[in-house]
Amino acid sequence: MKRLFSLLVIVTFLFILTACNEREVNLEIDREDQFIVGLEVNYAPFNYSQNFSTQYNYPVANQVGIYADGYDVQIAKAIAASLGKVLVIQKLDWDALIPQLEANKIDAIIAGMSPTEERKQSVLFSDGYFESTHVMLVKSDSSYKNATSLNDFNGARVVGQHGTVYDDLISQIDGVIHQTPLKSVPDILTQILGNKSDATVLELPVALGIAANNPEFSVVRLDNGFDVSIEDITVSIAVRLEDEELANSINSILAGITQEVREKMMNQAIVRENG
Prior knowledge:
By secondary structure, the chain is of the alpha/beta class. The protein has two domains: 2-131 and 234-273, D-Maltodextrin-Binding Protein, domain 2 (3-Layer(aba) Sandwich), CATH 3.40.190.10; 134-230, Periplasmic binding protein-like II (D-Maltodextrin-Binding Protein, domain 2, 3-Layer(aba) Sandwich). It is 35% helix and 22% strand. The protein contains ten helices and 13 strands. A five-stranded mixed β-sheet has the order 5-1-6-13-7. Strands 2-4-3 form a three-stranded antiparallel β-sheet. It has a three-stranded antiparallel β-sheet with strand order 11-8-12. Strand 3 (58-59) and strand 4 (67-69) form a beta hairpin. It is globular, with a radius of gyration of 19 Å. The N and C termini lie far apart (42 Å).
């Protein structure tokens, strides 16, 4: 058993380093041989879309001509390879992810999802596969650009993404104008650029990726930031409540990916997003 686990670790490590990419095939694949993963393909650098093929990205099954790349995609590829299954990526709206998992339409959610207590009532989470910190994102010419604490955002119009910890954290800002959450991060960016919002809350890698690709935005790192739990800063993979065996297999695979490799994967995802 120990030898088998070591083999899985090696396969996973080699798969990540070579970043080999499966291409579309014309063969029918049995459902039991597929590992179907749901994600937004709209949450860089965790996952994002491209309209061209590379050695790193992967075709989106329900979006012709669209390819998914990002940290989540590389994790999904590694897990599928170690499980001996063919990866299938489904692009889904955030609010549809858990319902589609419960309906057996997908096998796992690998989408930068935090393992909150509320979600644990519906799905089973793996161990964390990334940990981050939360920052504010503002326009580069914003009066909030040089903020150092949450108190500096008193009176600011702050908008979050619906159904996420980003939106939940906004209430920790005294005197904030907590705006109606929006469906996606791109929607939020559009609202900020349109001067309808002053700021949003994001994970550091997401904010860095946005700012690197869009000089109109600046990342505000806070000396006195949000009061968060480990669940708030951890992202995990979700499977169905009854799929304990799959969750255990995923945990074994994740255990073979070192922190150094994870950070390298994330940094490379950010670079590719902006390349």
